[in-house]
User: Fold this.
Amino acid sequence: MSKLVIGLTGGIGSGKTTLTNFFQELGVEIIDADIIAREVVAVNSPALKAIALHFGDDFIQNDGELNRVLLRRRIFSNNADKTWLNKLLHPLIRISIIEQTKQANSPYCILVAPLLIENNLLALIDRILVIDVKEETQLARTMQRDNNSLKEVNAILASQTSRSKRLEVADDVINNDGANLVEIKKIVISLDKKYLALTKMV
Assistant:
């Protein structure tokens, strides 16, 4: 079991995947809340069946997978549906996160969670690493990457905690506005040394 759990978070389009990959290259075990969220609604899972029952069969694709695009549009335009979905999925995701952090064997592990603060996961971690970018950067990157409309991206941003709140609770911050990959990798290597030193104090 890892001695430290680092919570990595940042708004949509901030560059969490790039950062995570660099840590993984250094042998750090990664627990990804987004992957877990997909696993709990896998084909034929109880959660997926509950979603189909609540929202209708249109929300299940022909291959049996969840229609994520349709569901995302529905919950970002209907707070009651969003609340229902969160009550269904969040306990399942939390259980899996706890199990995976207990199984991690690297000196420290990283829990990557876009909604780390919003979903009350702070009790599961020891430190918070925030990857920070301006809102304009988030909008541009997300629209380009996911082919979403400005309205859809703004709805996602509105559902996430504010940039100022993330920075307020951060123990470490990486600014990813304009930084190149070489610079980011150097910062990650520096943080890795810091975290490894901290594990020896636990």
